Amino acid sequence: MSYLRWKSIWFLERLPGPPTCGGWVGWPLRTFKRARYTSSNSAGRSPQGRINGWAPTCRTTDMAYRPPLIKGPVYITIAASVRSPDIRALAISAGWVGYEQLYCTVNAGVDVATLTVSNIPDYLLTLVNRGRIGGIYNSGTGLVASIKFNLDNAGGTIFGGGGQGGQGQNVSIFRGTGYVATGTGGAGGVGAGFNGANPPVMLPAGSGSSGSSQTVGGPSIGGTTQGTATGGSGGTGGAIGMTGSNGGPASTSGSFESSNYYGTTTGELAGYAIDGIANVNILASGSILGRTR
Q: What's the rounded Cα separation, in Å, for the pair 193 and 242?
């Protein structure tokens, strides 16, 4: 029995059983889109299966009264340390087809560097972190949340890379005409975080380097010591989730006529533990170290 729906262009034919079409299973109805088949026979059904010139379709958006076959949740596990894994690709490999609930677990003892969560419909993913998700050293971002998802971080850590230490202060001293000595500040130490390798390796915070020293020239002056300029030491890098230390002050000694101190820098801020925090529904916070936005 066939009929035309009221105010619709879709022609429905009742079928003896529930067909499968493009991965969607529905009621025993088949849809036909209005596309005249010029060589259909007068008996009603053409040799190609069309009904009086109405061509059958199999688009999910065209299916009348055909609910999707909802499967159970899909579970994936990240069991080894890795940089920037693609959760969507892992899910598809596990049989996820785009509409089931998805659970991704980072096992205890596993390090994941620079994780971006994207290309998954909102509210389908629950990220369960029992290991460490973190940023690269010197202010790298740990987790980028581009879609809305649930986060269970109980027992886990998410961190931004520690900030680099500030450069030490510079100083110049002057004596007589044209005699100058300059001490240059040392470089700041690296902030803690993962290195750039895959699998990632955790790097500790580093100490800043010492500043350089220089003694001013010119003729000796009886009973005095030639002046020396020494740059400040670089600041220590920050631990994970922490800002780096400021550069140290420069110093002078001996005899000179004037001096000029300049160039101290502050330590860099830690990286973002989570970038896109408004998209994250935190079920259990665990340890989140560093800034969020």
A: 10
